[in-house]
User: What shape does this take?
Amino acid sequence: MTSQVSSPAEQTDGTVVGEQRMPLSEAGATGDKEVRRLDRVIIRFAGDSGDGMQLTGDRFTSETASFGNDLSTLPNFPAEIRAPAGTLPGVSSFQLHFADHDILTPGDAPNVLVAMNPAALKANIGDVPRGAEIIVNTDEFTKRAMQKVGYETSPLEDGSLDGYSVHPVPLTTLTVEALKEFDLSRKDAGRSKNMFALGLLSWMYHRPTEGTEKFLRSKFAKKPDIAEANIAAFRAGWNFGETTEDFAVSYEVGPATKAFPAGTYRNISGNLALSYGLVAASRQADLPLYLGSYPITPASDILHELSKHKNFGVRTFQAEDEIAGIGAALGAAFGGSLAVTTTSGPGVALKSETIGLAVSLELPLLVIDIQRGGPSTGLPTKTEQADLLQAMYGRNGEAPVPVIAPQTPADCFDAALEAARIALTYRTPVMLLSDGYLANGSEPWRIPELDELPDLQVQFAQGPNHTLDDGTEVFWPYKRDPQTLARPWAVPGTPGLEHRIGGIEKQDGTGNISYDPANHDFMVRTRQAKIDGIEVPDIEVDDPTGDAKLLVLGWGSTYGPITAAVRRLRKAGESVAQAHLRHLNPFPGNLGDVLKRYDKVVIPEMNLGQLATLIRAKYLVDAHSHNQVNGMPFKAEQLATALKEAIDA
Assistant: This one.
């Protein structure tokens, strides 16, 4: 869905309340129902992996985006295709933070928890602050279901939830009752309880409903009875909120009209933004887009999305394995396409030999790594930033590769364009490091105008480019551009441009096989110099007062939590500087000078200190790591506490 924002840009300052829990304030009443206005809300839907929590959260998010709120989401689901029903490993959740102002994270703790069963309650109650609202599906709190997750007594009756505002709702029974007119079994009717819950929450927070009903009719177009049953359950949930005495208050969160520059916006996930960025790069380069990929969580959505866009000259190849996927992509690059391969950490390991071949061939290739928890199979559905050193050094020999990382879901679009620029300009494979948090999370994205997109057009070699001593004009495949050190890109079949390719070392200029020690030394240093010479923007430092002693340096998806934590510290009167890296190889040219300006440098990462290791080695700076590897993004409050300790140390 898209929404129009007409107001000029007006970003909130460092004391933004959007990252602090705010008390409710009365705004009025409608009939017998009180309406309170909030500046922000964090809602978490949680249930069994078969309860449709991701769909429920996605629909609530879509309506929230169309309403014009700023938002950030955190889907969280098990790796198993179908974990045992009602168990803790099978709990799936979706958290949404939406506000009437600029926000940066999915929120630290939910104001509202919707728990579809005892497992969902037990798995998530530790994150819920006292005083928050909890909506529980009482139909699922049977003795057997509670024993399955270790409840000896019902938490709804033993007083353990006394500190919360608990709303016991028989969601399943109410849903079945609402669908009596449909010819459905109790089990089939009960499957729509997530739509009942969605309707209830939509009433509570005054969300639009038309989009969800349209979505359901489209999704179940071939089964109109199922579509109408889900719509009936959705409406029943809305009506329940309107009529029941248990929900005496509803809430309003106004549009974030002052948080965004003017433009047309839509809600977008990181993987979808990456997909659109790749298509845009292909069009701006006037090259066909070729994706050679093997399905792997959490990167598969890019393959799914790009396969829908044949009308834009996109070709997708689902290979039999990771190695075949990148091999096909490299072949497409040789043939003159904008070539891409997508994967996650385990796939990068398998692709490493072909990435090295791309370094040797000096062909443009985008290698997109949607990082996840490792090592080995690790945590397929959880997030991590632990592939940085693999991206930098995970190949045999001296095989330098540029590395860039997006910082938000929407920023994945721009990162894809930047990766394509570097690959096409410098004739090199490029590693793009996203992660599961960015890939599955979503936020509003301003759809750019065409004239805002970079010109990525390239010139293929057309004829001879070198003159021999005897005056003969020939084509040298490794004769380099003096500015970029990029070699010519010769499309196969072009008359007179025949040349040899392969993984064995080439002679400078001619590209012939060479085992000469001096030539190998020269080629190794030249390939490194090409990467070192890539033009990247200087890193920008956010230091409002100019007297900060502490610099917080981040990369990738830590941007939101770091920025939220820095805002909290500044609101408390602390002076803190912040900088965030997009380009990780090569680093921005001014990074060394920036680091030297501060007494302390702290680098928060979702690994054990990989960027910190690179910074210490290159700049001899005593950078301090703050690390987390639990499969989840940083929480702003915890990060703010750690940074305050660094300030006081």
